[in-house]
């Protein structure tokens, strides 16, 4: 299918998110869209899929102009989409999610669950995905959820498949699988629009690359371009992809975790007898596939999840039984993994969110009244310092793009003196320019003598930041390894292999991205 | 590889026209007009003379029409006169508005914390019970007596509201269920108390308490029924405004109301916020209770709450959960109540019509898009719309 | 790829041997409450008077079908059993999976012991207890089902009370004027749908906050039925407000089952409709295409939209079907049971139905159980007022409401509404 | 369907006193409460018709409205103002003291100290309820009769007291053992719906009484009490009922077939008399207490049961009346209005 977007424009209020965008997708090509956070990539794709209506411009399919006013129009035209944010119903089973909208039924509209299960099994077999059709989506790890999303898109036999940041939550091995699937589809003539912030992936798979900046197409690039060149095109300036980092100068242990065990809501052991230590002036990265207990570990450190056994000490003082507020006051900074859910209050202004855990104390509050002048002053300073792209400090945070929302959270947490910074996925979904900046800030925090604990599923990030790496699998720490451990080896440990096992296997079976 | 210069996002020109508050005002006025039209239809349908004239509509159609016009005209004239036609009507409207404002604030404040307080009725009753009891059973010096009685009322409401918050915080019990149930418990409690000699008027077996001491009554303005409680209602509105927008506690309440998870992550206690919000909300409803028993009713009866606790929900929602809005909505409802009494007196229009009018007004005010699709000249307001549009999950 | 990498997703971990702190808190809370009730039950048993407690097993002549039990021994036995159940619960003596049954055992024991205590030396009409439970619960079930349908689709329905009122009014008027029960039920359903249409249009199309809307529609319904009653029904009651009440029809076979037969299967058409409604709503919601879509738009409308489902259309259909149920529930108050219409005769039952639906966790069966629970408590207090117990009448009047609070706080705990419940769906 | 325009016709009946305003304020139950507001209002209408007066009425939505409505009536230049119910006591006394020229009457209440221009209208319905209890006891086949109330307040329990005492008297006279379910006049405990609106609840309460064996029901719960009549109707002749306040065969005609009789509380007559006394310049502030003697309370006709009630029983009921009036029978109920 030949797809042509011409002059597509979309504004939100006074913000022009897409400004006369032209784009051509040839049949059977993998077309990568690159751009900073908030550049307008998702907006463009949402218009193509009928979720947003363009203010002007047209969509032409195989020479015919079409109007797409709803996703069902898009589906009719052979367009499929995997959305940046999961479009899965958490309380439904995998099969229910996949059949939704195109249900096979017995007479009388009664669902044919057998057929749906069979379809899921068949697809997972065809593409080598492993999913249990009867599992509830909310119970499966995000990586598997992402597969469900992909299967959902594939069942439609789309001729154009849009993948909006599908790899953000996948392990290297899973990304490999996805890349294989994309190649397979391409061979069958499906065109793919692929959005990602990971330049390695772009280089590995793209046939064509289009770069968008601030709502406009700023250029095309060849897959042979270097990461630096791509980054520069995206951000509009030279980007340092490697964080400048002196070797760590670890001092006294700040965080000491012993025998920590957390049981989750469903009664499963999420964190299993974990011992960890983070020293002042070092960055310990916790690596692992999502869903292996890292989330619960971080939440336990902050007192958000009660612990079943073990002890957590901050500079020698026991934290168990203390409230979250106490821990924050004691000098822990926290960047939660799911920012939209836990990191900020969407309907609050940027200024308010920048003091979400600071508002009680001077200078922002005196225990009773808020000092709004100080709050605003603080907001201006942080917006400046962290280059938060907003039209004003009085705007709600929900109107910012994802990357900028993340900056708000980091700006807040880094704006007070810390002993320990716990940051989960600090740059998930963030563009390379922002990553450069955020990583720099985290390293600076380390150099000031803060103990830093990073939880990340992103091997790039781990490589860039970590002084030491602890790999978690099924709630246990399977090993603590030096930062320069090869990524394939880390990947294997994340899949449960021990340190030595991983070393041997990795040499025999290199992955695509591991070798780029 | 081609390059292009980065351009900043283009700002689209703002839609010129009226400020947001003016547009909202216009929409509200239009909504009231629409509601009055609906009411007019009901008046016509129910009017005996119109019905008599309709029977010979073919013979003398003008009779029907003029009867209809005069029926509607007389009714609404009476409504207007009863609401704002002079000092006494205005004082009556303000008197009626007083408990509605406080009750409305009780609902608003909880709303902003993500709680649906359907229990203002019960909280008001508990406030009235305690305030009334202190008012007629204790005998204290002037001023002090009133203050003590008011405080008792606040405590009564606060306990009843606080229980809801506490149960929600400790056990997760849904506040909608608990408040509905506590409303019943409160009214049965009041009915029972009024059969005891402690609460009954000496020498009487009727369920009516003695009149509260003069010292414990809200002083009245001149010889109107308007009393100092009205000023307290305004003070309460200012207090709630300050609490929500200018205080650290309010910051916490709003944060919990908007996103409980993020608030928890930022070190706030969701449970504490629920308790605080419901205690304050209960106290506000309790204040409404004191206004009933120490301001207008004077003896305590089982009708002390009337339907104030439920009307308060509508008032709060009409006021979009903001203190100023709640005050305005309370004044409107108070005026309609006062005018409605006058309307039934003069044109014998049933009070149920006032109820219909109030419901229709809120319906139209809450749906600006509908009003706009009828009155097409109204400008669009970007800011308006889904305020308080939240589900059960907070 | 090697065999090590294959398993790179996380299979569900094994259930933990250690109890999660949240579970522990819950166990102690529920267990504590259970212990309190168990001890109260035992206490009542100890103070039970000697002699027989007589239970009437079939409604009708009070001399027949009696079961006499030695009050105190039975009460003691039940009381002890209750304590056992509570202790077993607190000490985790049964597998977690079955621990819920302990609460049920305790509940039954407590009520049994309580009844022995209350009925010692008297006759307690047990069959009538269930009969009355069903009477009270029928409109609540229909109302709660209406709520379930709406809210599963993401539209909060506080207006059940208003739909009841309008349904009751219409049914009474139509039954009086046409003399046809079928016409009355249809009219009630239609009027319920009209109220639902208001709810749907204003919430789905005009994005009015749904809680506001519900409350306002109740006020509106109260006003309009009151106004029409004042202006018309009052003046011409003989013609407009003398509906015939549906008569009970015994289902052959089923109606002859001992004990439950006469209670469940000698009822009016409306009650049978209620049974059917529970089954149908449950089935439709969880086993059909439409049900799947309804639940999808109530949980994650955008996800439904992205697979080509017309979110608003599904919501409209759910809310309107709910109107049918709520209208029928309203009809119960007039043609289904109590005859002529009187002002505000639904007396807050719509709000109780709302509570039942939340208490039943937005599930048709749960809502039914909650409605039956409330009906049981209300009927029990009425019967106890008649047989005269040492419990003051005023406390008995409050009892159903207190019992609901205790049940919600103690046993039900935190409930989770459909994720998008109350949120209008807007596209740009 | 268009007729011709009717011509003006002069007012009919009675003398013409259009300038005389007879006014009434309801309590928060409203004029359609099928109970005392409604009956009192009928009295107002009767007086207006009989004397050709002008009628003004004001319904109260809440307790808050009483002073407002009273003031409005005074301002409307009413000549006589009737307030209905004990809740209006304070507002009435207040208005009366401030407006000595206007005459007032209050139903079901009495000022603590007599006020020159306020006439209290009380009703000793225990007396006729006593008869009703006797009748019910005599007519019961099962030996059990039942009653229930709306809310436990004296205007309600007075009926239940009288009823229960009547049954006891019957038992004593006839050495029978008819039981009263739903009210224990000694302990003052019994069966209540908790409100006056929930008709279905009233019906369930009645049904529970029926299950316990009652075959005559005496509901004292306003509109909720109608549910009791419905329960009787649904029993297909097995159960009958006695209505209160008004003659049920008139106010709730659809239930006439199950009504043995009704305990009439003659508020209409009392109100009418009070108004007429003002029109005729014969007003005095002495308390009126409706009794069997003055007809202020009575048993309504038996209507459809007239032929089924034995003549002998009718005679006994007449005798009861004589004995109560003559003081041979004293009724204990504490809810009876006390002469002030
Ligand atoms: N519904 C909306 N209302 C208002 N502004 C919006 C809305 N959706 C997107 N925007 C704004 O439009 C711009 C483009 O957003 P978009 O989601 O397309 O960015 P993106 O390129 O996908 O970024 P990311 O890489 O962070 O996903 C951002 O500034 C965003 O804040
Ligand atoms: N994310 C949420 N959304 C909605 N309600 C919530 C949320 N989190 C908590 N709650 C409600 O608040 C209650 C209390 O939450 P919180 O976590 O503060 O409990 P707690 O820690 O036991 O209380 P406290 O901190 O006062 O001791 C919970 O039982 C729940 O009903
Ligand atoms: Mg995006
Ligand atoms: Mg907490």
Q: What can you see in these coordinates?
A:
The complex is a heterotetramer of chains A (516), B (394), C (428) and D (340). Chain A is an alpha/beta fold and 516 residues long. Chain A is 34% helix and 25% strand. Chain A has three domains: 3-235, P-loop containing nucleotide triphosphate hydrolases (Rossmann fold), CATH 3.40.50.300; 240-331 and 417-484, 3-Layer(aba) Sandwich (Rossmann fold), CATH 3.40.50; 350-416, no CATH class. In chain A, strand 4 (56-61) and strand 5 form a beta hairpin. In chain A, helix 13 (372-386) crosses helix 14 (402-413) and helix 17 packs across helix 18. The radius of gyration of chain A is 23 Å and the shape is globular. Chain B has two domains: 20-84 and 333-383, no CATH class; 99-318, no CATH class. In chain B, helix 3 (61-84) packs across helix 13 (323-347) and helix 12 (308-318) packs parallel to helix 14. The N and C termini of chain B lie far apart (50 Å). The model of chain B is unreliable at 1-16 and 382-389 (pLDDT under 50). Chain C has 17 helices and five strands. A three-stranded mixed sheet of chain C has the order 2-1-3. In chain C, strands 4-5 form a two-stranded antiparallel sheet. In chain C, helix 2 packs antiparallel against helix 3. Mean pLDDT of chain C is 88; it is low at 1-15. Bound molecules: adenosine-5'-triphosphate (2 copies) and magnesium ion (2 copies).
Keywords:
heterotetramer; A: 516 residues; alpha/beta; Rossmann fold; 3 domains; six-stranded mixed β-sheet; 19 helices; B: 394 residues; mainly alpha; 69% helix; globular; disordered N terminus; binds adenosine-5'-triphosphate; binds magnesium ion; transmembrane transporter activity (chain B); cell membrane (chain B); transmembrane helix (chain B)
In short:
The complex is a heterotetramer of chains A (516), B (394), C (428) and D (340). Chain A is of the alpha/beta class and 516 residues long.
Tally of DSSP helical segments of chain C: 17
Q: Which structural class is indicated by helix and strand composition of chain C?
A: mainly alpha
Relative helix content of chain D: 25-40%
Question: What's the β-strand tally of chain D?
Answer: 14
Structural class label of chain D: alpha/beta
- Tell me the radius of gyration of chain D: 21 Å
Which residues of chain C form runs of ≥5 with pLDDT under 50? 1-15
- Placed side by side, the strands forming the largest sheet of chain C appear as 2-1-3
End-to-end separation of chain D: 59 Å
Helix content range of chain C: 55-70%
- Measured distance between first and last alpha carbons of chain C: 45 Å
Shape of chain C: globular
Average pLDDT of chain C, to the nearest integer? 88
Largest sheet of chain C: 3 strands, mixed
